[in-house]
Here is the input.
Amino acid sequence: MRKSNPVRMCVSCRKRNPQQKLYRLQKDGSILVKYQGFGRSFYLCKVCLNSKHIEKKIAGRMKLDIESVEKLLDLLRYEDKL
Ligand SMILES: [Zn+2]
Here is the structure.
């Protein structure tokens, strides 16, 4: 078991959370994707994932294609329920 428990900040609400409770995402050009294991990434918390207008907020802030944001966030919500 790892002793360290890294804390990261949600890109939307800026609250700090344990890394494993956050969704790690990244940009692939103007497309939002899950973290691919390399490159720059950012985090989104569960509260924000389920908040209203989050797609617009993320797309605007990160300069992303809104459809790719909607698609990926829908997938994350779906996987969350599994
Ligand atoms: Zn948040």
